[in-house]
Design a protein that fits this description.
By secondary structure, this protein is an alpha/beta fold. It has five helices and six strands; from the N terminus they run H-H-H-E-H-E-E-E-E-E-H. The strands form two sheets. Strands 1-2-5-6 form a four-stranded mixed β-sheet, covered by helices on one side. The longest helix is centred in the N-terminal third of the chain and has 15 residues. The radius of gyration is 20 Å and the shape is globular. The model has no long low-confidence stretch (mean pLDDT 75).
Length: 202
C-alpha cells in the first residue's frame, strides 16, 4: 500500500524535474506522439498487450504476410506497403533460411532511404551468395535466449559497421548514459571518457 504522503509528493516532484528539461508523459499513447520508437519492457519480463496495442495503433510498424513454404515474409507484398514514411525493412529469417536477398537488395536500392535491419538470432552464421546475412544490413541484433543459435541464457548483441550505431547501442546498454567506454575502462568511476553520468541521450 502506498504511503499517502509519498503519493501527494508526486505532482510536486514531476513539476520540479520539468524545470531541468525532463518531459513527463502520462501514457504510452502520449509518449508515441513525441518519439520515433519505443522499447517496451516490463518488471516481469513479459510483453503486455495493453502496452503493445498503443504502439501498433500508432501505425509505425507495418506487417507483411508470410509465405507458408518458407515462413519468411512475402517479398512480392513489400513494395505495395512502402510509403513516404517508410524508413526501414526489418528482416527476421526463420531458422537460418533467408528470403531471396537479391530481390530484397534490389528493392532497397530502388528506395535508397530505406535501410535493412536484421533480427539475426535464428540465422547467425547463415549466408547468401557467400556473404553473412548481417553484411547486408546496417545493423543486426542477436538474442542469446536458450532457443537460439548460441546462448548465454539471457542477453544478446547488436552488430554494425557504422560507428554511430555502435555508440548508441553501447549507450542504450547502460541505460541511456552518453558513454560508450568498453573493457576495463568500465571499471573506472567515470569511464575513460569522463561522461558516464554527465550527459543523457535525449
Amino acid at each position: 500500500m502506498f504511503d499517502e504522503s509519498s503519493v501527494k509528493r508526486i505532482p510536486g516532484y514531476t513539476e520540479e524535474v520539468k524545470k531541468y528539461g525532463v518531459e513527463i508523459v502520462g501514457s504510452i499513447a502520449d509518449l508515441l506522439s513525441k518519439v520515433d520508437f519505443v522499447c517496451l519492457e516490463t518488471n516481469d519480463g513479459r510483453p503486455h498487450l495493453q502496452q503493445a496495442l498503443e504502439v501498433f495503433k500508432a501505425g509505425k510498424p507495418v506487417f507483411i504476410d508470410i509465405e507458408w513454404e518458407t515462413l519468411n515474409f512475402d517479398l512480392s507484398k513489400i513494395e505495395e506497403k512502402i510509403t513516404d514514411k517508410t524508413v526501414a525493412i526489418f528482416l527476421s529469417p526463420v531458422l537460418g533460411n533467408p528470403p531471396n536477398m537479391d530481390e530484397l537488395i534490389n528493392l532497397s536500392n530502388k528506395y535508397p532511404k530505406i535501410k535493412l535491419l536484421l533480427d539475426n538470432c535464428d540465422s547467425l552464421g547463415s549466408k547468401w551468395n557467400d556473404k553473412y546475412l548481417n553484411e547486408y544490413a546496417i545493423v543486426s541484433s542477436c538474442s542469446f535466449y536458450p532457443a537460439h543459435e548460441i546462448t548465454t541464457l539471457e542477453g544478446g548483441m547488436v552488430s554494425s559497421n557504422i560507428e554511430e550505431i555502435i555508440k548508441l547501442a553501447r549507450s542504450y546498454a547502460t541505460w541511456g548514459r552518453d558513454c560508450w567506454c568498453i573493457g576495463t575502462a568500465n571499471l573506472l568511476c567515470q569511464g575513460s571518457c569522463n561522461k558516464r553520468f554527465s550527459n543523457w541521450l535525449q
